[in-house]
Amino acid sequence: MVNEFIDPFGLWKQGIFSGMPPPNIDYLPPKTTFPARIGFIGCDDEAYQILTAYMRADYDVVAISDPNLATAKTIRDTFYPGAKVYADYRDLLADSSVNIVDVSNSMMGRLPLLENCLRAGKHVLSQKYFVDDLDKGEALVRIAKEYGVKFAVNQDARWVPAYRYARNLIHDGYIGKITSVNFLAIWNHNYVKGTPLEEQKYCLPLFGQSWFDLLNMLMDHKPAQKVFASLTESPDQVVKPPLLMHSLVQYEHAQSSISLQGDSADFGMDAVVILGDEGVILSDGAERGEQDLWFVSRKKVCKPHLEGDWLPGGFHGSMAEFIKAIEDGVEPENSAENVLGSLALCFAAIASSEMGRTYSPGEHGARKIGG
């Protein structure tokens, strides 16, 4: 692969740097052979992105359910004309042709729906975030184990090409021991004006749980010691919930930050700097768009050419990871149990922003949203 090199961070000016070939890192969704027959529940706005990804990946969606049957038929006709449609999701669960269920309905009412899907003996992929209470999430995990089915959560950001490449660089030991991971995300979150999201007090950190999950992934799911966060309003925002948040997460021998700035009308970006004792990874790009990545080690630097996108590609990655785990008989990396660790970070940040003190993930008072 040709080594492309651009110097936006002034690396050449900091010393004698030379280019190097990018490491051969496997970052694309895995290939699968398991005969997945997906039942899709909940035709909200996100369904279009998800099913676009599934159609591109040639996944077989055999049934679609939504309480509004007309909506389910519209989605069916748009993406999978041969799929069956049901107004009652329990009829979809009774369909023997379905072996994987994607639960895409809104958070409201999702908990009993997930439980019924698991008890029906289906492998379940839930869209995020899947619970607002860690105790309830742990109970669902126990049910999945009791019924011998796989239970995972879509964390599409994990399959952003730059983040996946970075994760595998770290996993393969290219940057040594991590000392810090620092995120900066800037976008215009005022689009929630007039929607139910505007009424959610914790709108920004819950939207931002993708970055807490990315941090958890990049830190290889090591337990954090404590979290401190501040949440406040921007002077120019036009929506009710605060749109500025900064979180500090402390680990043994490492410290990380997540800065979310949701009131930028003219500029958007998503960036991360990952420092290790043997190398550095830098990535930035337009808001939720294509991101460039640089890897720097021992006075050498490379910029690999990465294929893919966040949306809708991240949905393909999550489902591919899930199907591959079913095929191999292992727990998926995005298992619900794994993702509970990410939610624990997010909930600790919410509690900290409310109470003005640090919280340990999973601590009493930070096990669910709002206490």
Give a written overview of the molecule:
The protein is α/β, with parallel strands linked by helices. The protein has ten helices and 15 strands. The protein has helices spanning 47-56, 69-79, 89-93, 110-119, 134-147, 161-171, 203-207, 209-218, 313-328, 336-355; strands at 18-19, 37-41, 60-65, 84-86, 100-103, 123-126, 151-153, 178-186, 226-232, 244-251, 254-261, 269-276, 280-285, 291-297, 300-302. Strands 1-15-14-13-12-8-11-10-9 form a nine-stranded mixed beta sheet. A six-stranded parallel beta sheet has the order 4-3-2-5-6-7, with helices on both faces. Strand 13 and strand 14 form a beta hairpin. The protein starts with 17 loop residues before the first strand and ends in a 16-residue tail after the last helix.
Q: What is the assembly state of the chains in this entry?
A: single chain
Regions with little confidence, pLDDT below 50 for 5+ residues: 1-6
Can you tell me the CATH topology of the largest domain? Dihydrodipicolinate Reductase, domain 2
The average pLDDT is 92
Largest sheet geometry: 9 strands, mixed
CA-atom Rg in angstroms: 21 Å
User: Distance N terminus to C terminus?
Assistant: 50 Å
Tell me the β content. 15-25%
The first-level CATH class of the largest domain is given as: Alpha Beta
Structural class: alpha/beta
Q: CATH superfamily of the largest domain, called what?
A: Dihydrodipicolinate Reductase, domain 2
Spatially, the strands of the biggest sheet line up as 1-15-14-13-12-8-11-10-9
Can you give the helix content as a percent range? Answer: 25-40%
Order of helices and strands: EEHEHEHEHEHEHEHHEEEEEEEHH
